[in-house]
Amino acid sequence: MFTYLSMGLGMVALIAFMVKCVKQRSVGGVFIKNITSLFFLFTTATAVFYNQNFWQYGILILIGGVFGMLGDIYLDQKWVYPQHNDNYLNAGFISFGIGHFFYIGAIFLHMGFGLKDFLVPVIVGIVVAAFTLITEKPTKCHFGKFKAIVTVYCLVIGTMSGTALWAMIQSGFAVQYIVFTVAAVLFLLSDIILSSMYFGTKNTPVNFVLNHTSYYFAQFLIAFTVFLIK
Known about the structure:
Layout: H1 2-21, H2 27-50, H3 55-80, H4 85-111, H5 119-134, H6 147-170, H7 175-198, H8 205-228
């Protein structure tokens, strides 16, 4: 019950944030955004309490979510302190990347994967990173001095997505990993949109809404896998 309640309140907070900031970012809007992030952490925590037999998986997902929230906070600071844009952007990439490693670890722990199971995820990661670099010019994105960290980050999130996909296949399409794979796809979509906003010319209200909707849906779905895990 509390897991569903936390997800519901999180969606309400997300809508409030987007209404507040869709035209112009504000301190009040950022506060609401952080509340939204807290709700996906609450969702994970309540799910751990409900599904205590898999607490190790849940704790790793919770830690990954904490790093996701920190990454979000760092990225927001680049708007508040534009003079430190580079530092906050790099910190955001690093924090999100660490979070993805915890998500990968949670799946490997639960599935009992070994080193050989890294093959498919890493291949997916390489494909995602290569695709990002190849499409830089066609999408009119200019990574510039951030190209190296963007490439590494794409490799990490691609590997996380590949891990979810591999777990879904190896588990016989278990519900929790179908949900995780959907979340990974939404995460990728969110980052593609964010890339066009940060490194391109598409920082529009529509992309603002799409970016945050796909991102928060991804985080809440990953949190919900703790409730579903068997």
